[in-house]
Request: fold
Amino acid sequence: MAKREPVYVALGSNMGDRGAHLAYARNRLGTLPGTRVAAASRVEETAPIGPVPQGAFLNQMVVLETTLEPRQLLGHLHAIESERGRERQAGVRWGPRTLDLDIVRWGERSVREPDLTIPHPELPHREFWLRELAELDAAREPARG
Reply:
């Protein structure tokens, strides 16, 4: 059996019941075909990014183990966002949203497609993602004794 690479997915919400949106996403991710949620970071509140005035976000990152390919997972992430009322509008970036799910990192893979880049191009600019990645990486290291 091929070794599964860890897939790091960022969860964010700044509309409605933010905590419920994150909980829904965590639960739904675990129901995807060939997928399990291996770990989750703490939830933290962060200021919004970008020029659009909006409320603070709740953010969290999860590690998935999946047999899905990146494009398949992206389709599922968009479907889960839609289930929580997210409407993607052409040309609107960094606006308020009920749920935002981003593939941040996928093992050692690198993907460069028009609407899918892995690792996520904003990773170096989002301190909360870097903190969440470090937390998850530390939790996933085998115990040393």
Observations:
- The chain has three helices and seven strands.
